[in-house]
Design brief:
By secondary structure, the chain is mainly alpha-helical. It contains six helices and two strands; from the N terminus they run H-H-H-H-E-E-H-H.
Amino acid sequence: MSARAVRAPLAPEDLVGSVHEVMGAVLRRAAPSLEEEGITLGQFWALHLVSSLEHASLTSVARHLSVAPPTVCAKVDDLVRAGLVARHRSEKDRRTVDLSLTPAGRRVETRVWRAIGHVMHDATEAMAPEDLATTARVFRDIRRRLDGPSALGTEAA
């Protein structure tokens, strides 16, 4: 019997711990890029969410970061002062302030993601291609399950 066949199933908390450890290691290795860009990790995540969300606002960014809007407001204020994010009135609702990346903000986001890509490349370079393919497939499947209808409790049992 192979070593694989006798392994105990992985507990969910072991998976959470592994993801947390990998993310922590990646972010520690990417920290010099953030420092070079003059932004903090929190500012980078806010910058990324402004880039990723269809209609980014302080409220939507705060909700995605699971923090209070005043916390995001301070980060966004810093990003606006740095010329990386712009605030503008929503065309749909004049009471709402939308956020968008400036061209400089897009360049910063691209450079930081590129640095993270280099960190991941260096860490996985010697790994078997089939292991990397399996890892990517499993994480895509987990994301689909987390974002899918069952995450909202609407999927039939």
